[in-house]
Design brief:
By secondary structure, this protein is an alpha/beta fold. It folds into 2 domains: 336 residues, Alkaline Phosphatase, subunit A, CATH 3.40.720.10; 77 residues, 2-Layer Sandwich (Arylsulfatase, C-terminal domain). It contains 12 helices and 22 strands. The strands form 6 sheets. It has a 10-stranded mixed beta sheet, with helices on both faces. The protein has a 4-stranded antiparallel beta sheet with strand order 17-18-19-22, with helices on one face. It has a two-stranded parallel sheet with strand order 3-16.
C-alpha cells in the first residue's frame, strides 16, 4: 500500500520542481466542433448546464465577439494553425477523408513557433487537414507529410471527421491497431467489392441517416466514403471521448518527463456528427444526442482540468477554449436534436441568424474563453472583436519569437486583448462561408460579398446569408442581420468593399 503513495509523492515533487523551473507557461487549446454561441450555460443556455466550461469563464476571460475564420471546419483549422486565411489557398474547403495535407510544410506554423521556443508540441483529436502527398494514400505505412511536418512532436488523431472514412486513429502518422494481414483501403469514388453499405442495409444501422451518410458502416453507423480492410483498427464511437482524453493526458505526462513546457492542440470530437456519446451520457440532456454530446464535451474539459490540477500544472497553463464554426442540428443523422431543440425552445446560435456553413453571424461568432491563473483576471468579460487567426502572432509575442520577415501571415499580435489586459478591437476580420462567400467586419459594420447559392440550406435548415446582391449590416443596431443597408449607406458599402479587395489582393 505504501508503494503507490511513494510513486505519487515522487511524481508530485517532480511536477512541482518542473513548475518552479519553468519560465514559460504551458499552452492548451481546447478546440471543439460545431459548438454555437448559445450552446453553453455561460453564454445564456438554460436547457443545458456546462459547469466545467463555465469554470473557465468564471475564472478567466469570456469573449462576446470572437470569431473563427470560416463557418466550416477545415478552413478554420487551417487558419488557426497556419496564421493564414484559408481562402488564399485552393483545396482548403471541407476535405474528404483521403485528401492530402493542405498546410505547406515549409511555412511557419503555430506549433513550429512553440517548438522553436523550447516546447513539446502535441496534437490530439480531429485533424481534417489532409495527410500525405500522394493519391491514393497508402494507409498501411507511416503517412508523410502530416502533423509532424507541420510542427507537432506528437500526434494522436483521426484523419478527417468521425462521419467520414477512414474511421481509425493514427498515432504519429501510423494507423493504430492495424492488422498487416488485413490491409486498409479508402475510396471516395467507388465502393469495394463485398463492402456492406448503409443505403443497402438499413437493418444494420443503429442511427439512421437523414442525408448523405449511408455508405461504409462502422459501429452500426453509416459514413461518407468507402473503406475496405482495417477492421481491427476501426473505432467504437462511444469510446472516442475517453480515448482522446487519455492520449491528451498522456502527452502532458510526457512533457513532465522531458522537463519541457507543453503546447497541446486538443481538437475535441464533440459535438460533430455522428453524435454517439458514451453510455453514461446518453439520455442525460433534454436535447437528444446533441445535448448529450455537449455534456460529454464539458466532462472532457473537466477531465483535462483535473489532470492539470493533480499534476500541479493548472496554475501555469494558459487555456484557450473555442469552436471551429457555428452550430447545426441536423447534419446528416436522425438523433432527435431537431425535435428536442424545438420542444425546449433551444437556440444553439443564441440571438444570431445562421449557423454552420452560413455567411451570417451564427456561422462564425463562437464561444471563446481564456484562463491563465494570476495573469487573466477572473470574471472578465470582453466585447473586443477577436479572430482565432491571431493566436499565432499573439503567442509569438508572448514567447518573444519573431515571425520570419520573408513570410507573409494574416495573423496579428493581439495578445493584450487575448489576455484581457486591454480591450482593443481588431481593426477588421474576414470570414468565409461554405460556398466561399467572403464577408468583412469593421467597426460594428459587416459586409457580405455577393455569391451564388440558396437563401436556405434545406438539408440542414440553416439560413445561408448567400445573395447575389451586396449586403451591409450594422451589427451594433442589428445583430440579427435583418436590415440590409447597402442601398442606404453607399459610402460605408464602398469603404468595406475596398477594404475586402485590398485584403484579397495582399500577398498576390
Amino acid at each position: 500500500m505504501k508503494k503507490p503513495f511513494l510513486v505519487t509523492f515522487r511524481f508530485c515533487i517532480l511536477s512541482s520542481l518542473i513548475l518552479k523551473a519553468q519560465q514559460k507557461p504551458n499552452v492548451l487549446i481546447l478546440y471543439t466542433d460545431d459548438l454555437g454561441y448559445g450552446d453553453l450555460s455561460c453564454y445564456g443556455a438554460t436547457a443545458i448546464s456546462t459547469p466545467h466550461i463555465d469554470w473557465l469563464a468564471e475564472n478567466g476571460l469570456r469573449f462576446t465577439d470572437s470569431h473563427c475564420t470560416a463557418s466550416t471546419c477545415t478552413p478554420s483549422r487551417f487558419s488557426i494553425l497556419s496564421g493564414r486565411y484559408a481562402w488564399r489557398k485552393k483545396g482548403t474547403n471541407i476535405l474528404p477523408g483521403n485528401a492530402n495535407l493542405t498546410i505547406p510544410t515549409d511555412i511557419t506554423t503555430l506549433p513550429k513557433v512553440f517548438r522553436r521556443a523550447g516546447y513539446l508540441t502535441g496534437a490530439v483529436g480531429k485533424w481534417h487537414l489532409g495527410l500525405g502527398k500522394t493519391s491514393p494514400i497508402d494507409w498501411n505505412k507511416e503517412v508523410i507529410p502530416g502533423p509532424r511536418e507541420v510542427g507537432f512532436d506528437y500526434s494522436f488523431i483521426f484523419p478527417a471527421t468521425a462521419d467520414r472514412t477512414p474511421t481509425v486513429f493514427m498515432e504519429n502518422q501510423s494507423v493504430v491497431g492495424l492488422d498487416t494481414s488485413d490491409p486498409m483501403f479508402v475510396s471516395y469514388t467507388h465502393p469495394f467489392q463485398g463492402e456492406l453499405l448503409g443505403k443497402d442495409h438499413p437493418e444494420m444501422l443503429k442511427m439512421k441517416s437523414t442525408q448523405g451518410h449511408n455508405q461504409h458502416i462502422v459501429n452500426g453507423i453509416g459514413r461518407i466514403g468507402y473503406m475496405k480492410g482495417g477492421k481491427r483498427a476501426e473505432w467504437t464511437d462511444e469510446e472516442l471521448g475517453f480515448t482522446l482524453n487519455t492520449k491528451a493526458i498522456g502527452f502532458i505526462d510526457e512533457s513532465i518527463k522531458e522537463q519541457k513546457p507543453f503546447f497541446l492542440y486538443y481538437a475535441i470530437h464533440d459535438i460533430h456528427v455522428p453524435r454517439m456519446p458514451a453510455s453514461i451520457f446518453k439520455g442525460k440532456s433534454k436535447l437528444g444526442y446533441r445535448g448529450d454530446a455537449i455534456l460529454e464535451m464539458d466532462h472532457s474539459v473537466g477531465v483535462i482540468l483535473e489532470a492539470l490540477k493533480e499534476r500541479g500544472l493548472l496554475d501555469n497553463t494558459l487555456i484557450v477554449f473555442s469552436s471551429d464554426n457555428g452550430p447545426v442540428l441536423d447534419d446528416g443523422y436522425a438523433d432527435q436534436s431537431v425535435s428536442t431543440a424545438v420542444t425546449e425552445d433551444y437556440k444553439p446560435a443564441g440571438i444570431y441568424r445562421g449557423g454552420k456553413y452560413s455567411a451570417l453571424e451564427g456561422g462564425t461568432r463562437v464561444p471563446m474563453m481564456v484562463y491563465w491563473h494570476d495573469k487573466v483576471k477572473p470574471h472578465t468579460l470582453s466585447n473586443a472583436l477577436f479572430t482565432q487567426i491571431d493566436l499565432m502572432a499573439s503567442f509569438a509575442k508572448m514567447l518573444n519569437e519573431k515571425l520570419p520577415e520573408n513570410e507573409f501571415t494574416d495573423s496579428r499580435d493581439y495578445f493584450s486583448t487575448l489576455t484581457g489586459q486591454e480591450n482593443i478591437n481588431r481593426d477588421y476580420i474576414t470570414e468565409q462561408a461554405a460556398n466561399m462567400a467572403l464577408s468583412i467586419v469593421n467597426d460594428g459594420w459587416k459586409y457580405i460579398a455577393p455569391s451564388k447559392g440558396p437563401a436556405l440550406l434545406k438539408d440542414v435548415n440553416i439560413e445561408s446569408g448567400y445573395s447575389n446582391e451586396d449586403q451591409l449590416y450594422n451589427l451594433k443596431d442589428d445583430p440579427r442581420e435583418l436590415n440590409n443597408l447597402a442601398s442606404k449607406n453607399p459610402g460605408k458599402l464602398l469603404e468595406l468593399k475596398n477594404l475586402l479587395k485590398k485584403t484579397k489582393d495582399s500577398y498576390q
